[in-house]
Amino acid sequence: MAQLLPKVDAVIVGFGWTGAIMAQELTDAGLNVLALERGRWMDTSTDFATTFAQDELRYYWRKSLFERPAHETLTIRNNTGQAALPMRELGSFLPGTGVGGAGIHWNGQLWRFLPSDFQARSHNLSRYGKAAVPDDMTIQDYPVTYDELEPFYDKFEYLCGCSGKAGNLKGQIQPGGDPFEGPRSRDYPNPPLAMPYAPTLFAQAAAGMGYHPFPHPAANASQAYVNPLGVQLAPCTFCGFCEKYGCGNYSKASSQTTILPVLLRKPNFTLKTDSEVLRINRAPDGKSVTGVTYIDASGAEYEQPAEMVLLCAYVLHNVRLLLLSGIGAPYDPATGQGVIGKNYAYQITSSVKFKFDDKLLNPFIGAGALGMMMNDFNGDNFDHTGLGFIGGGYIGVLQTGARPIETLFDSGDLSQWGAAWKQKVAHDYLRSFFIATHGAVMSHRGNYLDLDPTYHDVFGRPLMRMTFDYTDNEHRMSDFLTDKATAIAHAMNASTVTPKPRQGSWSVVPYQTTHNTGGAIMGADPHSSAINRYLQSWDAPNLFVLGSTAFPQNAGYNPTGTVAALAYHAADAIRTQYLKAPGQPLVQA
Amino acid sequence: MRAVRAIAFALGLLATGAASSGLGQSTTAPTPPASPDTVAQGRYIAVLGDCEGCHDRPRGAPYAGGLPLNTPFGVIYSANITPDAKAGIGGWTEADFYRAMHEGQDDQHANLYPAFPYPYFTRMPRADVDALFAYLRTVPASPQAPPPNKLGFPFSIRALVTIWNWLNFKPGDFQPSPNQSAEWNRGAYLVNGPGHCGACHTPKNFLSGDEWSKPLQGGKLDNWFAPDLNGDPHGGLASWSQADVIEFLKTGRNGRASAGASMTSVIQHSASNMSDADLAAIATYLKSLPAPLPAPAASQVDPQVMAAGAAIYRDQCAACHRRDGTGVSHEFPPLAGDALLQASDPTTIARYILTGSPTAATAAQPTPFAMPAYAWKLSDSEIAAVATYIRNSWGNLAPPVSAHQVADLRAKVAAHPTRPPPGLD
Amino acid sequence: MKRDGAGKTGAPTRLVDRRRLLGVGVALSAAPLAGAAAETIGGGQGMPFTPNQADYPNAPDPAHRYDYFNPAEAAFVEAAAARMIPADALGPGAVEAGVPVFIDRQLAGDYGKATRMYMQGPWAKGEKTQGYQSRFTPAQMYRAAIPPIDTAAGGGGFAKLKGDDQDAFLKRLQTGQVDLGQVDAVGFFTLLLQNVMEGFFSDPIYGGNRDMAGWKLIGFPGARYDQTEFVTQFGAPYPLPPVGIGGRPGWSGKA
Q: Is A384 in the active site?
């Protein structure tokens, strides 16, 4: 029997970026907030200290900071014709666990989506006609606009001490920034990071071809910074252990380095670690939620009543908890009906390797979001007429640091060994790097999430089943980006250029990105979406679902900036509207 | 958190089991309720005296005591000073409380252990002590009784404190200096009275009594060294401006240093809550102090040790403290010119390296930047080398640190035998 | 108290002992039902900090011996590793850098036991895109794969072949032309090559990359945390020697 605990105003399920943002906002509003995190407490000086954080084997290959499939995983298949099998070890994406979540090991690539990304359906239909959006491409418009989110993007960028250069200040294009971005109300809080050699060579070549390279917006502090909460970040030291690692230097924005020092001083906030939510509890009439049931590390089970529930776990776990709790109608790909699990999307990446026989690039120098990028072929920044696809992605050299095993071992090319290989890497390692492309994935009728009928987690709950593959739209788009990147690599006068396009079906094996999206998407009405524009459940108005779970489809950018902007947008609505009439829908269905 | 705060022998601790000696049987007439002004005054005096620093334990009720303090003679637990009749001082009178503060005796006239710094509190005027008492009567009564002290014989004999008092304790109110400004006198009172700074910062004799002839010249307690607060150029505050002192006390850090170890508690509970005028007074007083210590002689440091220290510093320390030792202002303290680093006694700097330390988090500076622990990683000789290197680089001057000193401290505070296998043949 | 590190967590090593003594690792990794109570943080207490706490790596015993491999397995792994990364004029190869011992320690520990992996059935071969679907843990896979390899290699087993013949055999393994019975040849080759690369290029505390031979080969500077001054030194040779988590010879002042 679960032990019944005293009621709280708000319970937060999962304590990564969105959990910390919502806790900070709701405690400011005077609410008594409890956060439940299945993982452990972690902090800079004890858990990813400079004394041991630079450990590629432990953190990347043995995945020490990431979630454990032995505990919970999902089953995967490319289409309904295949038998879904468990993702037995992590590969393609790397969800986190523990306080800070994946915000501990992210790169700090802090993007905004394009204004047109929020109108993906109507914009593409109006510009390219009905044929551009096939029937089974189930893309939808976001129920919010870029302009509505702009203040909240700004808030998060200032929280994180984002380093960058604005390209569009209130409609005025700024030299050195990204001319394609939506208008910003002000510049980034910190100047761009110092730029190493390889990205600089890329930018010179790209600019020479008429493109518009600019410094990647980085939640890696380029200088000492005090954020609006008074929390401090320290200058990034370019250690090259950022992506997939915790930051030992207080330089990468995470909830630990931007929010928790203030949040944990508040008497009306409590965090319980090693506490995993098993389900969200529904009121007998099914029209609201009453709290959650969780189990702690000792195996004790608790029922935690709450006035409101904020689902802030990783995108995939949010969807699974909704399915396990029976909230919302599960999506059925055969009929297209139902909303929970609908419009799962991802991202598609490729790269172009280059090597300079005459240049030392020292690629081990790095930071998570250190690089020169261009958005000339992102979103709808270019004319897609006749290209056979919609959407796009960024192209650039992102120098996160060339950790040797990741750089030199490629499970997709098993011929890389022996005396000749040794000679080659001894020469090439310091002289090689790659151009990355990072493209959107549109939502498709057959790409979705549901509960697996066969496999279970450690608690005996069904695993989630992911049915996903790239479609022609993604492959055409990614190949287009790869071709552009290849041309730039040649223009860099590299000695060797090797394109690495993304071919065939989506595979769980090589790491690609942890940018899973959708499954409980936001929309204009309960028939087409699970949550409204304030991330409020259509089915239970005192339940809010945070995260990229809300994305109707993915864009060509990393999601964290938009995830955070949507969270702040929701928090603002809760503070200014919802708390005046708790339990009521903020949007009438 | 507990271990961080359970540090000093003589932080403001009403070290007693004495409250229980009353057993709630006191029949003295209750003190009449105090005016709100008096209670507010008392609350501020509790801040000045950092009462919470010792009388709160983590997650315990405020002022309910029970915080263990390691002394050379054993573990003493702070008393419950809430108005609970049985566990606290609910049965005490104003006079009882004044006797404790002024003479170091409880309501039954039994000696209190001098972990409770009555040698400093004795300088507080009766009105202030009464106001403090009035405030303490308004805090919620807690029935939480501190555990019994763990003192070895003969220190368990309370009567021996009489001898200690005879040797180390001179009761009497603070005497202002007529030649100094009111601000200076206020600062001197705060430092030497309620603030009891010397309880940590003044050297101790063999009985852990203060060496009154060497005020604030740096003291060692519970394997921490609290630095010299005089105007000495290397180990003291010579290079600090008054503004530096004020900022440090108010926020926990300034461009020169960050509060660590037990000072984090002092900053968080006490100094950061003091009025600007009082902080200015403390700064005025401290900056008036002379430079009594002899300048350190240029030390003979083995070049191989310096080379090892330089290598370790470059690989392990420079990311935060920067190659030139200048740090990052208000984030990672500079090592060049740092006073604590150049203290004659290297205990604290070696301990920071061994165990790591958080810095004080305050409303003004909420980020508790923390030094990571190195005990698991660096050997005694490596820590000695890097400590010696930073004590003798960038103009710093201090005696070398030996591997033996580090080993001794490691045994006391770290419990980490050595580093892991380095994988270097 | 066990953490998911790369190291071995079987017999107590010095590090494991230390961790227990210290009582660090109060908070467990995500595994529930692991016997630890949940931690409650907050209530105005600020950010927790415990002196001496460090989630440092679980380094295995560095002694040169085999804890997991039997002699035949060791012979195969040594021979194969020596072909994958041979010793030559450029410097030590995988064997000289301790790679076989590294793999042995990995297989004897959490990694070999697949403690992080989802190892519940039912089992199916699956599509290539579905990744690892073997019912064998990595340690079991070595155990199951090596006898059929030695049989297929003929003679006295793979280790007795001449170098060129070993290369040819490994290429057949790499392309799935050897039948390993219950084990997928390409899957095993992938695992072996990955483990060899891990052993040659991971931090020396795990037993491989001895003398930082792998890092010296390619010019990787190791476990450094400050590259600030080198970011914009375009094309300049990097001046610092590699350093491991456990240090470098210069830390004794001698090199």
A: no
Q: B46 with B53: CB under 8 angstroms?
A: no
CB C7 within 8 A of CB C112: no
What share of chain C has pLDDT > 90, as a percent? Answer: 73
For residue C253, which residues of chain B lie inside 8 Å, CB to CB?
A: 304-309, 311, 385
Q: Which of A316, A311, A233, A325 is nearest to A278 (CA)?
A: A325
| C-beta separation of C148 from C183 below 8 A | yes
Strand residue runs (E) in A24-103: 33-36, 74-77, 85-86
Instruction: State the Cα torsion C99-C104-C109-C110 to the nearest 10°.
Output: 60
> What are B412's two structure tokens?
């006391």
At B391, which amino acid appears? R
Q: Is the pLDDT of residue C26 over 50?
A: no
A256-296 confidence digits (pLDDT tens): 999 999 999 999 999 999 999 999 999 999 999 999 999 99
| C-beta separation of C133 from C124 below 8 A | yes
**Does the beta-carbon distance from A411 to C190 stay under 8 Å?**
yes
**Encoded amino acid at A494, one letter:** A
Nearest-CA residue of chain C relative to A39? C30
Q: How many CB atoms lie within 10 A of CB A467?
A: 21
A17 and A95 Cβ atoms separated by less than 8 Å = no
Residue-wise pLDDT for B399-416, tens only, equals: 999 999 999 999 998 754
Q: With a CB-CB cutoff of 8 Å, which residues 118-177 of chain C face chain A?
A: 118-120, 122, 124, 126-133, 167, 170, 174
What is the ipTM score, two decimals?
0.96
Q: Are A5 and A292 in contact (CB under 8 A)?
A: no
Residue with tokens 């105090």: B34
Instruction: Report strand pairing: A33-36 vs A269-272.
Output: parallel
Residues of C in contact with B419 (CB under 8 A): 246-247
Per-residue pLDDT tens digits for B125-158: 999 999 999 999 999 999 999 999 888 877 777 7
Spatial separation of the C-alpha atoms in residues C216 and A422, rounded to whole Å: 12
Neighbour subunits, C (≥3 Cβ pairs < 8 A) = A, B
- How far are the Cα atoms of A520, A537, B407 from residue A343, in angstroms, in the given order? 8, 16, 61
- Spatial separation of the C-alpha atoms in residues A41 and C29, rounded to whole Å: 9
Please list the alpha-helical segments (H only) found in A135-254: 146-160, 197-208
Give the global pTM. Answer: 0.93
Contacting chains of A (3 CB pairs or more, <8 Å) are: B, C
Amino acid (one-letter) located at A103: G
CB within 8 Å of chain C, chain B residues 298-337: 304-309, 311-312, 314-316, 318-319, 323
